[in-house]
Amino acid sequence: MDISFKDQQHTRWEEAQYLINTLRAWGITYLVGDEVPTRSMEDQQSPAALIALITQLAQCSYPRIRDASISLFLLHPELAPIVLEAIDGSETAVAAQITTLVLATLYLQRLWSIRLTLASGHIPSFPEQPFAPLWHTYHLPPPACHDGKWGLYALQQMEQQCRST
Which residues lie closer than 8 Å to 84 by C-beta, 6 or more apart? Predict the structure, then answer.
């Protein structure tokens, strides 16, 4: 195995560890990893740091860590304006990945609404309206359509088509 490839793998895993620990600070504790130093929670609150977190998650090569963005958005609906900034300020591929994660969040929020309410004690509130242009752009149904089922299915179909081309 090429040493540079090993170094790349090691670097990706270190970045993944950093993301896992950062997500823990945000209340997402189901991912397991090594303890890696992260910035203080106060440092993680700046818009620039939040945009960096959202884009790093979207680019993570480990799907479970990347998809933890959905949990982050569901637990912290106050991040919606920052998510929009991250989409607007990212290169096309990263913006598309963030968009996919946001749309999945919106559809799953509708689909899991009762369970999320029971688990958290309040109705999930990641806002749909600011993201309406996203599902319109991709010609996907709104989250309210059949409680997110149709949108989630259509999003899955769209992702499969993108990956096969």
Answer: 130, 131
